[in-house]
Amino acid sequence: MNSQDPLLAAVAGGVRLIELGHPFFTGMPCSPNHPGFRMTLIRRHGDMERPDGGSAANEIIVTGGHVGTHVDALSHVSHDGELHGGIRAADAQRGGAFTSHGAENLPGLLRRGVLLDVAALHGVATLPPGYGVTAEDLDLAAARAGTEPGAGDVALIRTGWSRNFADATAYLGRETGVPGAAPSAARWLADRGVAATGADTTAYEQIPAGAGHAVLPVHRILLVESGIFILEHLALEALAEAGLHEFVFVLAPLRITGGTGSPVRPLAAVAA
């Protein structure tokens, strides 16, 4: 008798994949706290040709671990000298790479994803600069979606801010501020036990006008206190336009030993 794993059967039935990240390109918006992404060809076709006429090209890539669409490892943020679980950051980072909570420990994720579309909740394409997304916003967005994230899920917050991605000055919002999660929203997510959460901005959390990344209380609540991974620079417009609030979330971070984050290509999978 033939039998098939239910997951294989679901895939065989047809799956549509929706991109949740931006392409990586030289000059893309980058937080001032991190080295930017650079890519150039170091060998072009014709620079070296094999006897049979074949040729190959390749590139060199230089980037920080928190540039473009990426996920934060638990080593990324400390508070009062401690990482998640009370690990002393000074001890863990000796030797130039983390021996605890390094990016090689970032899990692959095949989880239920929930889109909390706060921009749509407020009837706007993009939330105002510097807007703080509150627990009440998430409650209302979940009610609007007809579902809310639970234990082990991935919660994605849409502010609409990625619509500015082509304009680095507007997207980074150094003078205007950038919308994002306020501490009450982070606690709302932590109370529900999500595995990871992400947003369509450079810092995930609310950045008031002119404040820059001076303090990041939401990173402390999620990474240090709760062990919840953070995804930044997401592209959520296609997901929102499709009217999808619940989906299969797929993520496979690079296993960068001792790193603090990893570039990623997140996907939403839904039945075709």
In short, what is this structure?
The protein is an alpha/beta fold and 272 residues long. The protein has helices at residues 6-12, 89-92, 118-121, 135-145, 168-172, 183-191, 217-225, 237-241; strands at residues 15-19, 38-43, 58-62, 70-72, 109-117, 132-133, 154-158, 180-181, 196-199, 229-232, 246-251, 261-263, 267-271.
Count the E strands: 13
CATH topology (fold) name:
Glucose Oxidase, domain 1
Question: What is the CATH-assigned architecture?
Answer: 3-Layer(bba) Sandwich
Mean pLDDT: 95
Task: Indicate the low-confidence ranges by residue numbers.
Answer: none
Oligomer: single chain
Described by the principal axes of the CA atoms, the overall outline is globular
User: What structural class do you assign from the helix and strand content?
Assistant: alpha/beta
Described by strand count, sense and barrel closure, the largest sheet is: 9 strands, mixed
The CATH homologous superfamily: Putative cyclase
Total number of domains? 1
Give the helix proportion (percent range): 10-25%
